[in-house]
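dude i think i finally got it to work??
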Amino acid sequence: MSNMMRDSQIMALTKDENLGYMSDMALELAQMADDSGLTTLAYLFRMAALEASTVNSVLAGPDDFPQQLTSH
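look at this
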């Protein structure tokens, strides 16, 4: 029962919230890896955070794209 409740909570999150959470989480993990001297792992987590935030901003602003194409 609790598994189904957790899944529905996850599904209730919008893509923006989900990606924002992933980005924040990856940055926290990167900091923890840094503190442990795991610089390669920290780098990978930072790349994941960057990827999530980039996708998030692309999803958040799809309306800007057509205007840029037709601005001439």
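The mean pLDDT is 76.
im so relieved honestly
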